[in-house]
From TrEMBL, chain A:
PANTHER family assigned to the protein according to its UniProt record, in alphabetical order: UPF0229 PROTEIN YEAH
Record's protein name: UPF0229 protein YeaH
Matching InterPro entries: UPF0229, vWFA_dom_sf
Ranges that cross the membrane: none
Annotated region described as Disordered, given as residue ranges: 56-105
Basic and acidic residues bias locations: 56-67, 94-105
Pfam assignment, any one: DUF444
Native organism: Halarchaeum acidiphilum MH1-52-1
Ranges of Acidic residues composition bias in the record: 84-93
TrEMBL record, chain B:
Coiled-coil residues: none
Organism per entry: Halarchaeum acidiphilum MH1-52-1
SpoVR protein-like N-terminal domain residues: 16-342
A Pfam family: SpoVR
Name of protein: Stage V sporulation protein
Length: 444, 658
């Protein structure tokens, strides 16, 4: 229907969003807001209108506790999501508080969108390569199970069920007590009568209550009692007294549980190798991050499943977590082949026939004597991968460094090997383009 | 395959809801509402997102903005989880959409909510301004076809149509929403409208007139009218606008498709205007009745009540200003004050009770007891039906009572069926509800005196009991129905947002302080709160911009004026609008406004002394000639003409923050 087209057009109209993407990659805060998430603060394109100056406008708030004192600082007004035109009439969004204008919103881009936007920006059309493997995978947390890890417990449901149960087993105790006061009635009589009236009283309760009852013969017959007393509804009682204890029951516990699906997945493993030797100052580290991080997102957006390995090296190599990868700095010398040796070991777990592989290395081009020619180039040729890349960061200079040149000379720009040089932020996007454009079509 | 299952699923949901909808309608009518018929449609989650993106309709003209809304909607529902959305359209019959996957309790809540909206559409006069028979869905569909037709016309550049639509949308709210929509763009040359008379026709209260329009405003505007001041910018464009021809480098007459676009978007703006003008009232009205029907009349069954309470609290209990909660509180206040007034007027006619002695002479606990509904009405069950024979005939629906006795009506589930409107008013009488127990007693001396002054001395009562026997228990609901017919958000807030209301509900105004670079609460004064609220709801919450001259500088340039009310316009954004307007005018466009500036030296002084800096108001005209902007300061007279002297929405006190 029409909306599909409107959505397409929206993406196209987002010219500014793409500009923002470039700016973001070059200057934005790349640290993810959550595990696996990319927060790309892309401005939502909207049409201008005559509006009040946001700050001059002020607003109205509602005190949560106690009357507010004039002069007291109040929080920043929240932007009202969707508090747009009020066309139609949408209920159920309790988030209309605040006076904000919806024109300056940002949204979290997910990797797939990021990849798509980057494709648009760079004019790329990289299709993930086959290598499909049938795999058991887990999906959204949509299923429920009766057991599971504590963190997945649906407490809202548990509480609601408990509350319902509490209300359902509630009865007017005073009223039932009066029934016990009917002459010649024993617990059995009252129990039968209560069941007939659908009063959820237990026998045990009746027995307990009957044991210390004053005035056991207040009423001659049950009819007399019923005529004189009136049963109070649960609703009335709850309104007056509230609900004290909510009986939470194990039976009501439900744990959210991922759906298990079987499907074909396109999987990728990306090995990031970085020189962490003494010469890698902060400026260089930052440029490496700006180049490698978007590549990671791009690839995780392109593939169903993406695994990332981070290898740090000076003269030795070791594996690190992503969080520390870009910030690391050690004192040692540099031997790039140590990184590739380690990478080759890691990749044994990801067989080439099932996995797409990318090996990205980054550094300032320095290497120990003859290591590039004698060890790195042969290792690169040996390791099967969709793409090998070397990102050379050299702030402020245009010097052709040793390692990058050696790799270029050895592979001559072909064979899915790319060398990209980054001197400042302005080069980042070009570098990314150079690398991604070097991958040739799948040949299998 | 799946569509068949889908359809069956929807059919099943629909069948289950059929009886619910019928009962809801019956209950709504018993509560005194008179809604348009409502056609309910069951839709799935995706369809619901699409409807929301389209502003509640199934077909709209092609535009990327719907795509943007859809995208946002999808993301929101993905990350925030499914919510019980409801959509209802102002139409006769009204069309409402229910989401298939909602729990039954949610569906019931939505249906009761929708019935109240439908009543509002049918009876509020601002909706009547657009048309007596809106035929909205059909109109919007026709619009979609027309615009799509132009876009697909090989003679017309699709991108040009899109861009033109964008430009018109930038000023879609610059219409005269206080006037009925007329098909022909109104001519204002030669017949300056009698504004003063028109204002009177609007039925605004004295207070509003004072609040919104300073004395002599109408006369001043009429004088301006001679210079063609026009609040309906879209109509003005249709009359005088031209397109800019890039190749020729000059203005040319609109093409037919351009006229179509302007008129279509103008008509849609008028169609949606009443909804935007009555958001607080309409949502409050729906929330009030939903709560009455679902909560107090137990339309949610005992097992659904918890789900419903959960739903309700999510909608109403968000922090900050929430139009739903504000509207509901105001309606409750209208109900309470009308009921209180009725009771007080009766009590003041009792021998020995005057406004001076009221609080001492009246035993409020006894009054509460007397006002409480009789047991037979308060709790109705199959066993207590006979008790209904003993209450006042006006309260009991005897026909229904007979059917209840015959087992045709289940009063255990629907006790309200045995009562009349009067009976339900008695049953839900607001002043005896626990949360309003103190409301009667809390009436101020001033209010008592005012009531006493205008009291007709047509009846006297010997005792309090006699006086209370004469109380009209429907006074609150009757007053509410009258108010829902005549008011819009501006007049509603103006009339009912009293100090008593503001105090009871904890509202306060806040402003941005240039000294601290933060927002601060400024006041809990009802006037200040009202100003800030009116700023948000009057004129769609946007600054008033009018067309002043179609032949500015004697060169056919467009001159707009921003009617300054103490709050500045967002100038960078306004400039972007001017760029767009150039496309619609074909010649240079200019906007006169007043900006507030703080000289660096003053900012320094204020910071040193710890006070708020004094701002300077500077008149400015911003002109865009198709290529660049030019800003010129205005002379004193021209600046003064923009300023609305009697209105100032700035509530910043001079002496804060201290």
């Amino acid at each position: 229907m029409g909306l599909r087209e409107d959505l397409e057009r929206y993406r196209e109209v987002g010219e500014r969003a793409r500009e923002d993407l470039a700016a973001f990659v070059q200057y934005g805060d790349l640290r993810p807001s959550a595990e696996d998430a990319i927060s790309v603060p892309v401005k939502l394109v909207d049409l201008p209108e005559f509006a009040y100056d946001e700050r001059a406008r002020g607003g109205v708030g509602r005190a949560e506790d106690g009357p507010p004192r004039p002069g007291q600082p109040v929080g920043e007004p929240e932007p009202a999501a969707g508090d747009g035109d009020g066309d139609g009439d949408e209920d159920g969004k309790g988030d209309e508080a605040g006076d904000g204008h919806a024109g300056h919103e940002t949204y979290e881009m997910n990797p797939a969108e990021f990849a798509e936007a980057l494709d648009d920006r760079l004019g790329l059309d990289l299709e993930p390569k086959g290598k499909a493997v049938r795999e058991r995978t887990t999906g959204d947390y949509n299923d429920v199970a009766r057991t599971g890890p504590k963190g997945t417990l649906d407490f809202e449901r548990l509480f609601k069920q408990g509350l319902k149960r509490t209300l359902a087993t509630d009865f007017d105790e005073a009223y039932v007590t009066e029934a016990l006061r009917v002459a010649d009635w024993d617990v059995d009589d009252v129990f039968r009568w209560a069941r007939g009236q659908s009063i959820p009283v237990s026998r045990a309760w009746l027995e307990r209550r009957a044991s210390d009852l004053d005035e056991p013969d207040r009423w001659d017959t049950i009819d007399a009692m019923e005529a004189a007393c009136e049963m109070e509804s649960t609703a009335t009682r709850v309104r007056r007294d509230g609900v004290e204890d909510v009986a939470l029951r194990r039976d009501d516990e439900r744990y959210r549980h991922p759906e298990i699906r079987e499907e074909k997945r396109k999987s990728v493993v990306v090995v990031n190798i970085r020189d962490v030797s003494g010469s890698m100052r902060e400026e260089k580290r930052d440029l490496v991050e700006r180049t490698l991080a978007p590549l990671d997102w791009y690839l995780s957006g392109k593939y169903d499943e993406a695994v990332f390995c981070y290898v740090a090296h000076d003269a030795e190599a070791w594996e690190v977590e992503r969080a520390e990868f870009f910030g690391l700095r050690s004192g040692g010398g540099t031997r790039i082949s140590a990184g590739y040796e380690f990478a080759a070991e890691l990749l044994e777990e990801y067989p080439w026939r099932e996995w797409n592989r990318y090996v990205f290395a980054a550094g300032d081009g320095e290497n120990s004597h003859n290591d590039s020619e004698e060890r790195v180039v042969p290792l690169m040729a040996e390791i099967d991968a969709n793409l090998h890349a070397y990102v050379e960061v050299q702030p402020g200079t245009a010097r052709r460094s040793n390692h990058g040149a050696v790799v270029e000379d050895a592979f001559g720009g072909g064979d899915d090997v790319a060398v990209a040089r980054v001197h400042d932020e302005g080069d980042v996007l070009d570098a990314i383009e150079t690398i991604l454009a070097s991958e040739t079509e799948a040949d299998e | 395959m799946t569509t068949d299952t889908d359809r069956l699923d929807k059919q099943r949901v629909a069948d289950r809801l059929d009886g619910v909808a019928r009962d809801a309608r019956a209950l709504a009518e018993k509560l005194g509402l008179d809604p348009y018929d409502v056609h309910y449609w069951i839709v799935d989650h995706d369809e619901m997102n699409e409807l929301i993106a389209y502003g509640g309709f199934q077909t709209r003209y092609p535009h990327w903005r719907w795509g943007m809304e859809y995208d946002r909607q999808r993301k929101q529902s993905r990350y925030l989880g499914g919510k019980a959305f409801e959509i209802v359209n102002n139409d006769d019959p009204a069309a409402a959409f229910l989401q298939e996957s909602n729990a039954l309790a949610d569906q019931k809540a939505v249906i009761t909510h929708v019935e109240a909206h439908s009543d509002f559409f049918a009876n509020n006069r601002w909706f009547g301004l657009y048309a007596d028979e809106p035929a909205a869905a059909a109109t919007l569909e026709r619009h979609a076809e027309t615009i799509e037709g132009h876009m697909n016309d090989p003679e017309i550049d699709r991108a040009a149509v899109e861009s033109f639509v964008d430009s018109v949308l930038c000023v879609e709210d610059v219409i005269d929403q206080h006037r009925p929509y007329a098909d022909d763009a109104p001519e204002c040359e030669g017949e300056p409208a009698d504004l003063a008379a028109r204002l009177d026709d609007l039925g605004l209260s004295e207070d509003v007139q004072r609040q919104v329009f300073e004395d002599g405003w109408a006369e001043g505007r009429e004088a301006a009218d001679e210079r063609e001041a026009e609040t309906d910018l879209l109509a003005f464009l249709a009359r005088h606008g031209k397109a800019y021809d890039e190749e020729a480098g000059k203005a040319v007459e609109y093409a037919d498709w351009q006229r179509d676009v302007i008129e279509i978007l103008r008509r849609e703006a008028y169609y949606f205007a009443p909804q935007k003008q009555t958001k607080v009232m309409n949502e409050g009205w729906a929330a009030f009745h939903e709560s009455l029907m679902m909560g107090e009349e137990a339309f949610a069954g005992a097992d659904e009540f918890v789900d419903y309470a959960d739903h309700q609290s999510r909608v109403l209990n968000s922090s900050g200003l929430n139009p739903y909660a504000l509207g509901k509180q105001l309606w409750e206040y209208v109900e309470n004050t009308a009921n209180r007034r009725e009771v007080v007027e009766r009590l003041l006619r009792v021998e020995g009770v005057t406004w001076r002695t009221f609080h001492e002479a009246v035993d409020f606990d006894a009054v509460q007891d007397a006002l409480a509904p009789p047991d037979a009405i308060d709790s109705i069950s199959p066993e207590t039906l006979d008790a209904l024979d003993r209450v006042d005939d006006r309260y009991v629906d005897h026909d229904a009572l007979d059917r209840a006795r015959g087992g045709e009506i289940d009063v255990a589930r629907h006790p309200w069926k045995a009562l009349t409107t009067a009976g339900l008013a008695r049953r839900h009488y607001s002043l005896v509800k626990p949360r309003y127990r103190g409301f009667l007693r809390s009436i101020s001396r001033a209010e008592l005196e005012r009531t006493a002054r205008y009291l007709f001395d047509d009846a006297r009562y010997a005792t309090v009991a006699d006086a209370l026997a004469a109380v009209d228990f429907e006074a609150g609901w009757e007053r509410m129905r009258t108010v829902r017919e005549d008011h819009n958000d501006v007049t509603f807030l103006d009339e009912f947002l009293t100090q008593e209301f503001v105090d009871a509900n904890g509202y306060f105004a806040y402003e941005f302080s240039r000294a601290t670079e933060r927002y601060h609460a400024t006041s809990t004064d009802a006037d200040a709160v009202k100003k800030k609220l009116l700023l948000r709801f009057a004129n769609f919450g946007k600054p008033t911009v009018v067309a002043l001259d179609a032949n500015h500088r004697n060169r056919g340039e467009l001159l707009l004026g921003h009617e300054y009310n103490g709050v500045a316009i967002d100038l960078p954004q306004a400039k972007r609008v001017l760029e767009r307007l150039f496309e619609l005018w074909g010649r240079p466009v200019a906007l006169r406004t007043i900006t507030t500036e703080v000289p660096e030296r003053e900012l320094e002084r204020a910071r040193r002394q710890g006070v708020e800096p004094e701002t300077e108001e500077v008149g400015l005209v911003v002109r865009y000639d198709g290529e660049s902007f030019e800003e010129t300061e205005l002379g004193a007279d021209e600046t003064a003409a923009l300023r609305a002297d009697a209105v100032d929405y700035d509530t910043t006190p001079a002496d804060w923050p201290s």
